[in-house]
Amino acid sequence: MNVKALKFSNIFLLILLILGLYFYLIKPSRLAVVVVDGKVVDFSGVEEFIVPFVNFTQLFYVAPKHKLISCGIRKSMTQLTMNIMCLLYNETQFYDDNQSLNDTWLTERKCLENDDFIYPTESLENDIETARFAFIRDPIQRFVSLYLNKCVREKSCYNCGDDMRCTVWKIYEGLKKIQDHWDGHSEIGFMEGHAAPLSWNCDFDKDLPKWQLLMMGADSNERKSSILHLANILKKQGVKQELVEKIQEDMIAGETGHSTHKSAERIEAERQVREDPFIRDLLHKIYFFDYVVFPFKRDHLDPKYQSNFWTLPK
Fold first, then answer.
1. Largest CA distance in the chain
2. Residue 27 belongs to some domain of the structure
3. What residues make up the domain containing 167?
4. Which of 30, 88, 146, 229 is most exposed by smallest CB count within 10 Å?
5. What does the DSSP assignment read for 16-61?
6. What residue intervals traverse the membrane (predicted)?
7. In a domain, 51, yes or no
């Protein structure tokens, strides 16, 4: 090989090396561009944020005879959702097993053994009479509940113990890796599954307008309003009146065994969220787009995030 050919060969190899390093080390996240409700949305400029609508976790509960599908969003009344749907799926079995709407995860549920309870059929999904509902709660309140339940009480938050700074950083790191490399099939991590943004659930990226969203926060009036909303959904889907009333009464009267929304521990956790700038910064980066996608109040966010400095295109 002559000197000129060798020179061009070396230049070509150098270019390949530079391109390889770029795509391996510094290329923008491949999820900087996301398809939302059929539209391509460019998230350039907010790359440090966790983007919405990564189709990450699907937890459905189905009552086929009532043409009803619910979405189980972890740390957003999932336990209550499953109990209600088990009751609607097979009322006789539910009462024969002496179950109630306030049962905890420790209760064995026969409904979970049936595929048509956890996998909506294509015909049900395409039926215009099918109703969908999901309980949603303020994202930062949801994080606090997750932290108290999994970190303070169960000590199952990575290796962080009850260190909230450690926990929120690990969650941020985990979700960032998922959004950059999610292939739709990888195993879902325990904490990431519980902490994932609301919009990452139940195919919300495809059909969010079809879902009726029930706000379930710490405010009792908000909870009562959502309970009434659910009752109206159930009536419309042909659930008998006495069963609807039973569900309403049990929801108002009961609190699940690991509910944390009134505890002294929650007050301390909320203080950390309000006062620690490191925690606040990461929580805004993790959950900001949940406040864009869903109709939550933003008055407890930092001033920048209360404005519409970034919105989803119409």
1. 92
2. no
3. 60-306
4. 30
5. HHHHHHIIIIISPPTTSEEEETTEEEE-TT-TTSPPS----B--EE
6. 6-25
7. no
Using a 10 angstrom Cβ sphere, with 0-12 exposed, 13-18 middle and 19 or more buried, the burial of residue 282 is: buried
Provide DSSP, 134-177: EEE--HHHHHHHHIIIIIIIS--STT-TT-HHHHHHHHHHHHHH
CATH number of the domain that residue 121 is part of = 3.40.50
In the chain, the amino acid numbered 35 is V
C-alpha to C-alpha distance for 133 and 124, rounded to whole angstroms? 14
Query: Number of structural domains, the chain?
Result: 1
Cα–Cα distance, 30 to 34 (Å, whole number)? 9
* Per-residue pLDDT tens over the stretch 241-287: 999 999 998 888 764 444 555 678 889 999 999 999 999 999 999 99
DSSP structure class, residue 201: B
Q: Is 7 part of a structural domain of the chain?
A: no
**120-141: burial string, b at 16+ Cβ within 10 Å, e else:** beeebeeeeebbbbbbbbbbbb
The answer to whether the Cα torsion of 305, 37, 146, 173 is positive or negative is: negative
Residues written for the chain: 314
* pTM of the model as a whole: 0.82
Residue ranges with strand state E in the chain: 33-36, 39-42, 60-63, 68-71, 131-136, 211-215
Q: What is the DSSP letter of 208?
A: G
